[in-house]
Amino acid sequence: MHLFLLLADAKDDFNQYLENNPAILGLGAMGLGLLIGGWGVAELITGVSRDKKGRVLEGGTGKAASLIRVVFGVGLIGFGLYKLVAG
């Protein structure tokens, strides 16, 4: 419980830094979005998706997992662009 409160501290130095420099937060979100979205697109192209334990997902399950990765990647890129533009 105390660790959660420590991590959720709104006045933490790093949180204050990100609040004062939204471009850093936006670029970080965009980088993560490109990584996750690119991973999903690569899985869609190759047709081979893997779960978190490394097992191959085949058929509709593999496509769904890849599409979820692409959607979250696009969402993170959108959030990053918002933070860059709106500050």
How does this structure look, described?
The chain has 87 residues and is mostly helical. It has four helices and two strands; from the N terminus they run αααββα. It has a two-stranded antiparallel sheet. The longest helix has 28 residues, at 59-86. It is elongated, with a radius of gyration of 17 Å.
Question: Major sheet, described briefly?
Answer: 2 strands, antiparallel
- What sort of overall outline do the alpha carbons produce when their principal axes are compared? elongated
> Which structural class do you get from the secondary structure elements?
mainly alpha
Radius of gyration: 17 Å
Q: Give the ordered list of helices and strands.
A: HHHEEH
Q: Percent of residues in helical segments?
A: over 70%
The fraction of residues in strands falls at under 5%
The number of E-state strands comes to 2
Number of helices: 4
Mean pLDDT: 87
Low-confidence stretches: none
Distance between the termini: 32 Å
Order of the strands making up the biggest sheet = 1-2
